[in-house]
Specification:
Layout lengths: L7 E4 L2 E4 L2 E2 L6 E2 L18 H5 L7 H12 L7 H8 L6 H5 L6 H16 L3 H10 L3 H18 E4 L4 E4 L12 E2 L6 H4 L2 E4 L5 E5 L2 H6 L1 H13 L3 E4 L8 H5 L3 H16 L5 E4 L2 H17 L4 H9 L1 E3 H5 L19 E5 L3 H5 L5 H8 L4 E3 L15 H4 L1 H18 L3 E4 L2 H13 L6 E4 H34 L2
Parallel strand pairs: 9-10, 9-11, 11-12, 13-14, 13-15, 15-16
Antiparallel strand pairs: 1-2, 3-4, 5-6, 6-7, 8-10
The protein binds iron/sulfur cluster (2 copies).
Length: 474
């Protein structure tokens, strides 16, 4: 699956975009590829949004038809068209199922940028994407302000410390559980060289969710990467990967962010860059080469940066993790029944499905139970879940149902945004006894337990020896 950046050319009241190579040597994706849609409706059968609202405008086929009408000059850019284009999770299920190989996701992203160029981005979202997201200092100041003020407007609910609103407010439904802005960001907890090892120099790309809301996942990653012997580095001034901007039609912000991240990570002479966020990983791997080239970066430099990007699961597969693979935990581990949700941006976009399952199955004491439709979108879709929570939660209801059918006590996944949304779904259904965790936490908890068990056995052995010695004393 491929994404892109585009150059706009005004014509017929629309901004048209030249097809541009995704990566050197790969196929071109043009918005005009929408004409390859043969209207077979196969995409209807897999689209989570269409399953909730079976309207043509909510399907990939309907969107391809609208975009085709627009580029042929039969439809003006409008806020209504913008709304139709936004009614999509960008989950890629339609693209995967399409018998005519229509690249629906890149086409829809292009169309969003096209409409944004003509009618703008919705006011609040436009301020965020065009002015705030790309300005790191201002963005972090806004997050700190949110951190200080969140208890005034939200109340804490038990279990994994989610928040619910105290009083009616736009875009935050009464029954929605949101994560807290963390008391300390990951980059405040740890930055620069955080672990010295003898292995490769690995930079962690945290992403906004991990940095501002779930820094503990980042710290879990630090421990895991260190357990492979790596030197672990967290570049402090890393910014958002830019996917919200790209998805929201703010291509220029996405290009600015790509350039900032390139420059920040280049300071540390890294061998690899590992992320635990499926969406960031997908964006970094698939879009950065083109975004950087569009921003004036030399192609070799851009390709070199992108070639260092790994998802955590991808990187850890086959690695010997001290404490996990030495068998210490086998006898003492409690039985833990675990299921796994495949994030769209990892399983479908990056083709990483076997790796997390392999890692889970490698953990002593863990029983992996497959979930039906594990690769079906959880309904999050970034800002989709904010702007269309009514649809988003119905999609999520199906995910909750499939989770409950597994009988697992732990849901593992590899995307912090999926974790947020699945936790919300479970809590909305009154389920308190199923935990939803990142694979980094499952693995690092196991290692910690193993090391504690080893230490305890060591202490017991020492005590035994001392006791024996004492018994021999005169
Ligand atoms: S599956 Fe592909 S060809 Fe068929 S209607 Fe959907 S987008 Fe068009
Ligand atoms: S990307 Fe997903 S939500 Fe969007 S049209 Fe395709 S299947 Fe539906």
């Amino acid at each position: 699956m491929t994404l892109f950046a585009f150059r706009g050319v005004k014509s017929h009241g629309w901004t048209f975009y030249d097809p541009i190579m995704i990566r050197p040597g790969e196929k071109q994706v043009s918005i005009k590829s929408c004409t390859a849609c043969v209207k077979c409706a196969t995409c209807h059968t897999v689209c989570p949004v269409y399953s909730v609202v079976p309207a043509e405008s909510h399907s990939a086929r309907g969107k391809m038809a609208l975009i085709e009408a627009a580029i042929e000059g039969n439809l003006e850019g409008s806020t209504l068209l913008r709304e139709y284009l936004e009614l999509c999770l960008l989950c890629g299920a339609c693209e995967e199922a399409c018998p005519n190989l229509v690249p629906t996701v890149p086409i829809m992203l292009q169309a969003r940028e096209m409409v944004a160029g003509d009618v703008g981005i919705k006011t609040g979202k436009g301020i965020l994407l065009n002015h705030l997201l790309g300005a790191l200092k201002t963005f972090r100041l806004a997050m700190r302000t949110g951190r200080a003020a969140q208890r005034l407007v939200f109340k804490r609910i038990p279990h994994e410390s989610g928040l619910r609103r105290r009083f009616p407010m736009p875009l935050v439904p009464e029954d929605r559980t949101l994560p807290e802005v963390s008391a300390r960001f990951l980059t405040e907890l740890a930055s620069g060289t955080v672990r010295e090892g003898t292995g490769p120099r690995i930079g962690i790309f945290a992403g906004c969710m991990v940095n501002y809301f779930y820094p503990e996942m980042g710290m879990n990653m630090v421990e895991l990467l260190a357990a492979t012997g790596a030197t672990v580095i967290i570049p402090e001034d890393q910014a958002c990967c830019g996917m919200p901007a790209l998805a929201g039609g703010a291509g220029n912000t996405a290009r600015e962010l790509a350039l900032r991240n390139l420059e920040e990570f280049e300071k540390f002479d890294l061998d690899l860059i590992v992320t635990g966020c499926a969406t960031c990983g997908s964006n970094l791997k698939e879009n950065y080469t083109q975004l950087l080239e569009e921003g004036g970066v030399d192609s070799d430099r851009a390709v070199n940066f992108v070639s260092k990007i790994f998802d955590l699961n991808e990187f850890l597969t086959g690695k010997a993790l001290s404490g996990l693979t030495d068998g210490e935990i086998t006898e003492t581990a409690e039985k833990r029944v675990v299921t796994y949700h495949h994030p769209c941006h990892l399983g479908r976009f990056q083709g990483i499905k076997d790796e997390p399952i392999g890692l889970i199955e490698s953990i002593p004491g863990v029983e992996y139970v497959p979930m039906e439709d594990a690769d079906r979108c959880c309904g999050m879709g970034g800002s989709f879940s904010i702007e269309h929570y009514d649809i988003s939660k119905k999609i999520n209801d199906e995910k909750v149902k499939k989770i409950l059918e597994t009988g697992a006590g732990t849901v593992v996944t590899s995307c912090p945004a999926c974790i947020l949304h699945i936790r919300d779904g479970l809590r909305r259904h009154g389920v308190e006894d199923i935990e939803v965790v990142h694979i980094a936490r499952l693995l690092s908890e196991t290692i910690e337990k193993s090391l504690n068990d080893s230490a305890r056995r060591g202490t017991e052995a020492d005590q035994q020896e001392n006791t024996t010695d004492l018994s021999r004393s005169p």
